[in-house]
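The records we work with from here on pair a chain with its fold. Each token is a code from a learned vocabulary of local backbone shapes. A record is reproduced here so that you can trace the correspondence yourselves:

_____
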Amino acid sequence: MTKIFHRLVSAGEARDIISSLISKRISSTRLQLKYSINQIISEDIYSEIDIPPFDRSEVDGYAVIHSSLEGADEDSPVTLKLKGEIEIGKRYDIEILPGETVYIPTGGILPRGADSIAMVENTSRDGNFIKFYRSVSPGENISHAGSDFSFGEVLAHPGTLVDPEIVALLSAAGKSEINVYRKIKVAVFSSGNEIKEPGESLNDGEIYDVNSPYFISALNNTGILNADFVGIVRDDKDLAIKTIEPLLQNYDIVMSSGSTSAGFHDMLYEVVDSLGGEMLFHGISIKPGKPTFLAEVKGSLFIGMPGFPLSSASVLNYIVIPGITKAYKIDNFNLKKMKIPFRINSEKGKDYLIPAIVSRNNRVYPIFGDSGSISRMVYSDGIMVLSKDRNFYEENEEVDFFTMKRREKDVLCIGSNDPLLERVLFKTFRYPAIINAGSQGAVGAMRIGESDMGGIHLMKDGEYNKFVMDDGLKKNSILLRGFSREQGFVSQKGIRSFKEIVDDDLLFVNRNKGSGTRDLIDSLIKDELGDDFRKENIRGYFWEAKSHGAVSRAVKQGRADVGISIKYYASVLNLKFYKIKDENYDILVSKNFYDSEQGRLFISNLKNIKELMYHFPGYIVGDDIGNRIV
């Protein structure tokens, strides 16, 4: 019988339920400070002393009364009598009077009467007399008692992550032990017959386990959770019960991915029932991530996450971890309002979560794709949240944006996918953000100032790319010459035309709307089969792959008979290739990027890509690569 989702909750309700349950499991333990790195402090920690605990010198020099050195300079030095010397770590009953001085090392206790320290390099010594070649101001080179922090000052609050700087701060205050939250133990497993651990070989239909490694690293990174990988559980109810039951006795939380929806093989909700658990919610009104469930079983929590990586990553970051950290009074749920660059359709009835980047215009630019794509999370700065109460948002409207800690982008590339361009980007930049949005996506992003660069291969009236450079685009961008790519039919059997595809009723894999290759495909169909031919009669015409690599892999795996791609992928995958033409792949760059040091480095590396040609068959690089076209 098909399972119907019940106890559907909103994202906020899911976080609150998780937080409430975790709150009951919070306890503290005491650790030596030097071994507490990455723990979470569970108490207010106050200073019981002043730091520094006394007025001290910040330099090697001479303690003086500042008025004794008034007018001192290179031409008219002032001479003072040396009254003595101070050793570090000792207090002396010495009082300085006008006309006197005392030598003091860095960190030495300031003697009575002194109000300044003259640096030793601005002096010279003659027996018991010191010449000063520079005056000083009151308090100069003195670190006063309590100037770092003082008695009674709060040094750390509950929820503070212990990092090396916190260790240093508390050590300075004399703390040797602190109270930290006991780490909640989490058992993590993935479920499914198709799942393999990374490092194992894959058979047809199998995939590597992405979720467990991701969950463990993200959960352990919080400082309040201790996550362990406990294996992969196959789609067998009895085996799942035998595996999960002892985990519930030894862990505070058991977290799975996969087997949570209403499909025939999705049996974990049945495991919960068999173990006498209570389903607290089964389904969250979000997309992706709806089939998430939370149950309480034998005193522990059981969280069932979706199987697709993007779905589970979205739920983990937007709901599960914030729900847990909220219980610890850690405020890391950073939701703010930001504008979008263009109209975006939503889906009324559930919140729509889309990975997004913060563009060069400080708007959030969505990274569209399917829920199985973990790479979208790698490049994202956070998650755009479209409300379940809206069908669409207009350009420049504000949306909720859940920010996640990310590395600063060196360059933002939005445009048509190309492996050679990516190689140049990773050679040039440490953290490039690459959004495969097609040639039209590159033009659109550049037109509204969202990106630094993007590759295009668009043709009109027999000319590549130059025609897009209208007056509007010329205001903020430049077109650089890139390279040419051999483009043609890829197949297992050597297909050479659309007529052959139609005559033999072959399964074709198309490219996405907005890509230059899609324009070429439609043009070829028209030229070969005539204006009256209905393109939808080609089997697979509406199957849209989003990259040359995706087309070629579909053919390689036998899911399609033929597609149009570039020779590079045909060579890599050992497919037959029939050339249609050479296409020009050029690069739009913003004027700001073009004039920058990073832009100049990119262009220099682009001009030197001939050294890579051995690894990229089907590419043609001219002497004009990197030159300005328009």
